[in-house]
Every structure is written in structure tokens, then in C-alpha cells.
Amino acid sequence: MPSHRSRSRTWPQASSSTGRPSTSLKSQSINEQLEELDQELEERAVEIQLAMELVKDSCAELGALEEDRAKLLEARQTLVAPIMKLPYELLARIFEMGNEGECDPEWVEKIPVDEEEDETRFPTVISHVNRRFRDVAITTSSLWSHICLKERSPYPLTRLWLDRAKLIDVDLDLTEDHWLTQIDMRGMLSVIMRPERWRSFSLRTEEYVAIHTALSMMSEPAPELTFLELINAHTEFDEDEEHGLPFAEPVDIFGGQAPKLTGVSLYSVPLRWSAPMLSGLTSLEVEYLPAGWRPKWTEWVNLIRACPGLEKLTVMASGPRIPEEVDPRNYPEVEEVRLDKLEEVELGDVRPWVLSHLINMLRAPKLSYLSLDTLEDYDYTEQIRMVSDARYPVLHRLKFVLVDVTGVEFIALLRRLPSLEQLELNALDDYLASIMDDDKDPGRTTGLVLPKLHTLWATGYDGHQLAAFVEQRKRFGGAVSTVLVPYRDERLVQGGHLGYLQRETRFGYFEGSDREQVDDEADEEEEDASDWDIEVDEEYEDQEDWLDGEEEDGDEDGVDYGLL
Length: 564
Prior knowledge:
The chain has a domain at 86-102 and 115-144. Helix content is 32%, strand content 13%. The chain is built from 14 helices and 16 strands. The chain has helices spanning 23-79, 88-100, 122-126, 131-139, 156-164, 182-192, 208-217, 297-305, 352-361, 381-384, 407-415, 431-439, 463-475, 495-504; strands at residues 146-147, 170-174, 198-205, 227-232, 263-267, 283-287, 312-316, 337-338, 344-348, 362-363, 369-373, 397-401, 422-426, 455-459, 482-486, 506-510. The longest helix has 57 residues, at 23-79. The model is unreliable at 1-18, 102-120 and 514-564 (pLDDT under 50). Residues 1-32, 512-564 are annotated as: Disordered. InterPro entries: LRR_dom_sf.
């Protein structure tokens, strides 16, 4: 009997010679056992066959289940957002782009106030979407490197952002609704005072003491700093103030060591003008400095000369200190400084003799943008006559704000700049009318003024004035393709005028300066573009019925006038 059989059997035992069974009995016993074994083998074969059929059926069912599972997995993949399938690195880059929030400062689309996003909170929002987004956001240090938060002591969010930024350089912006007092200033700066990690730093306060506290705390070198903005937005400003200022002298910060600094913007904040850190700049903005803080003429010349790569210069109610002299010969001698990369210059609220020195000092063959903003009660005619294409051969954009010169002088200026392509005007001085009068002057012997003009930046003008200008320029062959107005003037351009400007030009909005605010008593009244009492020039044609949306009776010669 094989040893693996499960059932035990008793085999016949050999008997003694005296009790030996017969041969027939022995054969009968073996045959019976063989029959039993054969029967059992047949049973087992049947069982095996049934088991094989069961396995075959189970395999078929398993294959069907696997096919169903594969189909379900494929269907589930179609329900997953494509962004969830992106690699980690690509998703991190998308988050970085979303955090940048860049916009074109010269052309802004109108966005309702309640839809504006708080860019500083983007990393926080994106890190709360789901687990994968959170993992990517928290481990992407660059998302947390721009710190512009509004909170009170002990500044937990600021500390958190600095921690998540890890060891990379950070951009610190403390200007957005962040009017820090002296106590706030000391507390905040104690948290972020790591100048060795600053890539850019912007600070705003309205207290002299607070800004002095900030400057005194900035004593360590800033080796990675590229941009510095310091704003002391106090409400009172006296240009002639020389005594009683909170600072005895301009101060030195960062130990004079900021080797990568290229952009500086100072608003009523004095620095030591001969500091090495103010050399090699590409952008310099100096605004609202009392006379006691302004650099001497020689210091100013040395400052500009130390920045041969300067690209943008803004001087507003500041610049060099040059006392008025009765005898012009007593003014300091002008030293010309050639700046081959200077492209933008903004000069405002400086007295005429200072403006003369600034214009004569700067030799900028590549200047493309010039802004002139003057003080009241001064005559700037002589200074305006200094501006010409001989001095600025590639000037293509000019901005005038409160420049009190006659219309004749203004037109003469424009004729000296025939290559101008963009013009910025303020309605406080209606130079737009001067251009229109010159265009239709029957005695004009020269060509159209500003023949290359294609863009008008207009502050304080209503829709009728702008539409009339666009229509007339088109008739005279000097079509204007783009008209931009500040957001606050939106209500001045409505109804048919707005529709006309949108059809005929690329009409849009820009962020206007508070300095250009037009004082108009009618600002308190809403206008509906149907009751303006503006007289319309007889030559202003309304060929497309854009005023009222309905065809009106014209005069005898068939011209349809834009009468409101």
C-alpha cells in the first residue's frame, strides 16, 4: 500500500504452516482490493475534472473582473483634473507664476473692486486646496519669499512666511496700508531685521520718529539688496524748511554696504548723498525733501556722475539745493553729465532756476519719456523752450501737468518735437483745445502738429472733448489709435462718447496720480451723457450717430452735429 494513501488498510498477514489459507482465498482478497482502488481512482479523476472545470471558470471570471477594473480605472482618470496629473516641479512653477501677479502699468483692464485679489495671500489660499497642493506649496520656498502682510504684534504670519521661505532671499513690502508707528516699527523690524537676506525692501510710515527708528536699526550690510524704497508720508511739507528737522544730517544705513543695489526711491527720507551704496544705480527717485535735507549742487552732480548706467530719474519737490540768486551769474556752474542709458526723466515741483540746471546738466541722447510738472506762480517759459529734438532726438512720449505756459508756447514746443508719438495732458490747462485750434487754423503754413501722435493719455477731460479731438485728428489725417484715461475719470466718459471712443480707438484706463486730480465742483454730480452743456464745434461731425443712438436732423449741408 502506498504510504501517501489517506485511509489505513490492514493487509493479510502470513499464517503459520498449520493455518495457511488456500490460494483461491488469497486471490479473491487481492481482486477486491484492486476493485476498490480502481473505483476510488475513478472517483478522484472525476473530482479532479470537476476541479479543473471550476478553475477554468474561475479564471474566466477573474479575467472579466480584471477587465472591469481596468475600465473603471480608466473612467476614474477622466474625472481627475488635468492639473492633478502634472509633475511636482511643473505644478510648483505654476504656483510661482500665479504668485507673481504682474500687470502692465500702462494698460490696465477694469476689474471691479470686489473682485480684486489679495496677491499676498495667494500662497496661503493655494496651500488649502488639497493635500497635494499643500505639499507642493509649503515646500516651494519662493512662494513665501514676498512678504506683504498686515497684522499686529507678535506678527505670527510674518514669522511663518520667513520660516517657509527657508534660506532664500526675500522681498519685504511694508507699504500697503501699513502706517507703522515708532512702537510698531521697532517690533516689526525686530522680526524681519535680517538684511543679509533682503532682496528688496519697501517701508512706509507717516512719522518722522518712526522712520528715524527704522534707519537707525538698518546697520548691518545688505549684500543681496537690489531695491530700496523708504516713504515718510507725513501730511505737512515745507520745501523751505531748514531748521527744526528731526534729523540733524542725512543718515547712513547698511554700514554703506549694499553692493547689488540698483534701485532707490526716497520720499522725504534723507540719506548721506555721498554714500558708496548710492553709486551704480539704474533707477533713482527722490521726492519731497525739505531744503535742509537736499544735496548741494556739487553733491548732486557727483551722485548722478556715479551712476553712468542710470535709466530712470525722478525728481519731485527735491533735487539739488540751489538758493535763488538775483544775479544769474551767481548760480553754480552747470556741469554736463552724459547718461547714454537714461530713458525716463520726471521733473516736478522744482523752481525754474533749478529746472534749468537739471535740464542743462543731463545729456541723454536716448531719452524717450519726459514728464514736466511745475509749481504755480512761476514762469517756466524759458525752461520749456530748452526742450527740443536737438536735445532729445528720440523723445517719443511727453507728459505735461500744470505747466502754466501759453497755448502758443505749447504748440511751439510740440513743433520742436515732431517725433512725439504719445502725449499726456491734464485738463487744468486745456492744451487739447490748442492742438485742435492749430490743426484747423486756415492760416497755418506748416504741416499738422504731431504728425506721428498715436496715443493720448488724458486726465480730467470729458467724453465729448476726447471724442471731438479723435474725430478731428482723423479728418486731418493724424488719427489717434489709443486713448487712455485714469480710473477716477470713468464717469466723465460715458454713453455715446464712450461707445464712439471704443469703436474708433483702443480705449482703456490707467492708474492716475493723485497730483493730477482735477478740482471740479461738478464731481459730486452724476452725469448720464445726455445733459452736458458743452458747446460742440460746427466742424465736429457725427457721421455714425454715436451721440444718441438715433438719427437726427442735420443742417442744410447734410452734416449731423453732435448736439447734446
